[in-house]
């Protein structure tokens, strides 16, 4: 049984040593606290009658420890050798206590000093183990001494001169593995405080889960990074002897834990886990003077090795123009000096550049032995990162394909590791983070719809939709866990205001995976946040038509940002609400078809009005009913003037490939100009006064058995919108309620048009269309 120190002891001993070296007498107090803690542990562990020997032993060892620290205090210096000696007390004390307790339990137990077992070199602080000597010492010791249970301090060893050395933080696991290997143990169990190796660092990924079985190679790859469940060197000794290694949780022994073995059974998951390492610096040695000349890499690595700088990742492009290595950020400055000195002549001659050092980086890596037989793994990895705006600075993959490493900005690690985890672990749900602007007619319906569908999405699609921020023009509610959609209105009412720029910055700063801006306002203000968000790979879903019908240059800029940054910019509901009009048009264009012309009824409001108005009640009253039914724009004059239809015609023409501005659309209005003087109430009042005008329009059409329809027409680069009287044989005659309809004539649909028809306005259907766009953006 190998024992590590009581929690926090090693750190406390280091701190005590450092204060002593800094002439700070606080070390005495610290040692006293540690002593009390160990004495209390002894009293708790052993029966009163048999405590004395252990208490005496502890006191004498603390007296020794005190003398060592007094020496450090007197000298004002803490050497690596003395620090190793200081640190060793943690394990020496705890293991002697455990040995005493084991004997008390009636076990045939004995304590062995690992300094007599583990032989190392004299590199104090992180000594290297002499495996052969250790093997011999362990066997010789156990042959010479007899006990059924040996209790041994972990973490420490001794050099050939008998000086105490340490094996690196977490080194108790390593001690156990060395002993298991020397003894040819049947199994090695590591009892720790987590239930095994996890698919990702659980501090970063809440859905990370324990890995039941894993190969030595995979465990080695995972143990280097992230949540260090296992001290990395631990695996080597047991792997060489094929000794199975269990990682179990002391606090949940019933949990399965992780079995590390030669060949775990194949599972559906080709990726076993995802590792991450922060505080990385990328060193780039570049220059045309390197191309085709052997020896540059040897000199680069030798310069780093001389400084004892550990290289974490290596990559070189086939052009040989640059070599790139990843090192610990703490080693960056020393690396720069060492490499620039090594290549001083070539740098002076301009053959290579001084070493370029970039800090603030991190590695996210996929680990899995089965990846080698599966194409598409790296594609999926890069796709998942790319879709979330995570820029990959460097890539490394050996031909064994056990590990695919990507170097990214440290600020992106949490997002990156989560999207990669979502992409590779089926049982994991995908988290979608919404930032919603607008909670009016459509916005409110959307939030209620999300509330109703949340459970379905989680259960059936494994998608967790969260509204992280919700803003109206006066309030903004934010919740990192996602707002409770059952009470969004109360949360919004109680929330403070937030400006649009701050709202935009909030989305960028949160840097959450699968982020979507949802614009369900009608204002021109909000569209200014689209470009900065798309440039951060945040998807934009808008039923607000302002952006797509603004200046062509702005519309085209947003479309190109969406393409460049892999961020969907979706606005299906801009035309016909949830009817699949824009998606169908995009399919036509994508497949090389060309729209020759289209004819459409695109205003739910006007269709509602002309379907309900027959002179039996005032025209203005029917418009009010349309507004009450939620089909009009917040300002109904946009509908009645034909502007809303013109915007839709413009968006359709642009999506068909036309470069067109709003001023190119001919709007043939049918309302007297007087209706547009004043505010919305004045508008209604004036329509009432103009009732005769509307009655005349209706009567003329009805007299010929025709219906009034406000029609948008586009043909060969020209578009117009206006009121028409349609006969019963016209495709756009037979429309109910707030229906929209469009007929496309294209190179493929020459005689019989492609017709799309159905409810084309209203809060519910529009909300459903926005919801569909959100899903399209993230799935
Ligand atoms: N109705 C329909 O059938 C269809 C509608 N649409 C589009 O849906 C959009 C929304 O329409 P509708 O829901 O009726 O409009 P509403 O007027 O009912 O709601 C608009 C919402 O936007 C909020 N808002 C306004 N300015 C800002 C701002 N600067 N920042 C944050 N929030 C803001 C408003 O807040 P506050 O209450 O504080 O002012 C309100 O919550 C429109 O663009 C419309 O064209 C698209 C297709 C069909
Ligand atoms: N006000 C619009 C709503 C959808 O865009 C309409 O009437 O069609």
Describe the structure.
It comes from Hymenobacter saemangeumensis. Bifunctional aspartate kinase and homoserine dehydrogenase that catalyzes the first and the third steps toward the synthesis of lysine, methionine and threonine from aspartate. The protein has 779 residues and is an alpha/beta fold. It has 5 domains: 184 residues, Acetylglutamate kinase-like (Carbamate kinase, 3-Layer(aba) Sandwich); 80 residues, 3-Layer(aba) Sandwich (Carbamate kinase); 152 residues, VC0802-like (2-Layer Sandwich), CATH 3.30.2130.10; 145 residues, NAD(P)-binding Rossmann-like Domain (Rossmann fold), CATH 3.40.50; 181 residues, 2-Layer Sandwich (Dihydrodipicolinate Reductase, domain 2), CATH 3.30.360.10. It has 26 helices and 27 strands. The protein has a 6-stranded antiparallel β-sheet. Strands 18-17-16-19-20-21 form a 6-stranded mixed β-sheet. A 6-stranded mixed β-sheet has the order 23-25-24-22-26-27. The radius of gyration is 36 Å and the shape is elongated. Bound molecules: NADPH dihydro-nicotinamide-adenine-dinucleotide phosphate and ligand LTNE7NMQ. The ligand N[C@@H](CC=O)C(=O)O binds next to helix 20.
Briefly say what this structure is.
With 779 residues, the protein is of the alpha/beta class. It has five domains: 2-185, Acetylglutamate kinase-like (Carbamate kinase, 3-Layer(aba) Sandwich), CATH 3.40.1160.10; 186-265, Carbamate kinase (3-Layer(aba) Sandwich); 273-424, VC0802-like, CATH 3.30.2130; 430-574, Rossmann fold; 581-761, Dihydrodipicolinate Reductase, domain 2, CATH 3.30.360.10. The strands form six sheets. A six-stranded antiparallel beta sheet has the order 11-12-10-13-15-14.
